[in-house]
Amino acid sequence: MNIHEKYINRCIQLAKNGLGTTYPNPLVGSVIVLNNVIIGEGWHQKSGEAHAEVRAINSVKDKSQLKNATIYVSLEPCSHFGKTPPCSNLIVDNGIKNVVIGVIDSNSIVSGRGVEYLKANGCNVIVGVLENECLELNKRFFAFHTKNRPFIILKWAETADGFIDKIRSGDSENSPNWISNSFSQQFVHKMRAAEQAVLVGTTTALNDNPSLTIRSWAGNNPVRVVIDKTLKLPENYNLLDGTDKTIVLTEKLVNNSANLLFEVIDFEKNVLAQICNVLYKYEIQSVIIEGGSKTLQSFIDDNLWDEAFVFVGNTLFDKGLKSPKIKKTPIEIQKISADTLKFYKN
Question: Which one is catalytic: 53, 195, 263, 290?
Fold first, then answer.
């Protein structure tokens, strides 16, 4: 690892502190280095608040040092006035002449303009240091701006004999048939805290009556999304309780309330594309598809997914609803107590 990679790597470490709190903005970290010593650093913490470069510059006690320092930033500094002033201007105004950038911003209102401004004002700019790592850091942001859809994560738990649920009868209790252990369940809550939305299909919503909130981890509850074509969900179900923002995808025209938003889609056309369009409309950059089997398999069959987390419990159902199938090899397998977690990338 060379010297530039060392400090961009530090930028990435800092940026990760903002996971789950910066939407719709990207994760960004910045460090300022003089004579191989970090004299300032910062990361973007929340949309509307100071960007990473601002926090890094403000953390430098002796501003006269900036003219001889190098600023490192994991993502191209912005060049436009949004909720905050442009960071490229701030770098120039503080006399910083050396700028090292991890990756160019894919957002069309920035893309390349920050670098152009810095160069036009006499800065020495290096771009593309640990570029792949910086792309991975903001995979949600880049998917949203380049594919016009959220970053899509599939998640389910299956038994050791390959079932996602037991056979439900008409008098079955409306609650989950737990397959994974409490540690895996906590892992899922951690995932929800990092992503912007979580989606389930009608059958899962009816059978499990899920809350889709965070209860065993710290963070913000995701936007809840449920497919309910004919509005089968009873009004007393958790997803309709109004406590958290919930989007209901339906064919029926219904008035919205404060936290309950009804979006009409045409179920005779490409449903998944319409789901992505609705989420894009609400500026949702990432979504976890949590079930059921039919919904998950439809995303797999359409090759419309980016990552998948499959929790394999040590329980057996003998018969039931078969789990979805991914025709790929997991890139990582780890144990969570007695459970096995298989991680896939598409």
Answer: 53
Between CA 66 and CA 256 the distance in angstroms is: 52
For residue 273, the Cα-to-chain-centroid distance in whole angstroms is: 19
CA distance linking residue 320 with residue 142, whole number of Å: 39
Please say whether the beta carbons of 91 and 118 come within 8 A. Answer: yes
The pLDDT tens digits along the chain (346 residues) read: 699 999 999 999 999 999 989 998 999 999 999 999 999 999 999 988 999 999 999 999 999 999 999 999 999 998 866 666 789 999 999 999 999 999 998 776 677 889 999 999 999 999 999 999 999 999 999 999 999 999 999 999 999 999 999 887 765 667 778 899 999 999 999 999 999 999 999 999 999 999 999 998 999 999 999 999 999 999 999 999 999 999 999 999 999 988 999 999 999 999 999 999 999 999 999 999 998 899 999 999 999 999 999 999 999 999 999 999 999 999 999 999 999 999 999 9
Backbone angles phi, psi at 223, to 5 degrees: -65, 130
Question: Crossing angle, helix 3-15 and helix 52-59, to 10 degrees?
Answer: 110
Instruction: Tell me the residue ranges of DSSP E strands in the chain.
Output: 29-34, 37-43, 70-75, 98-103, 124-127, 151-158, 163-165, 197-200, 223-227, 246-250, 260-264, 286-291, 307-312, 321-322, 332-336, 339-345
> Crossing angle, helix 293-301 and helix 271-281, to 10 degrees?
90
| 116 labelled catalytic | no
3-state DSSP assignment of residue 291: strand
**CA–CA–CA angle 27, 18, 1 (5° rounding):** 60
Q: Is-contact 336 183, C-beta < 8 A?
A: yes
Indicate the SS3 state at residue 222.
Answer: coil
Give the tokens for residue 138.
């903001």
User: Rounded to 5 degrees, what are φ and ψ at 154?
Assistant: -95, 140
Contact criterion met (CB below 8 Å) for 316 and 160: yes
What is the pTM assigned to this prediction?
A: 0.91
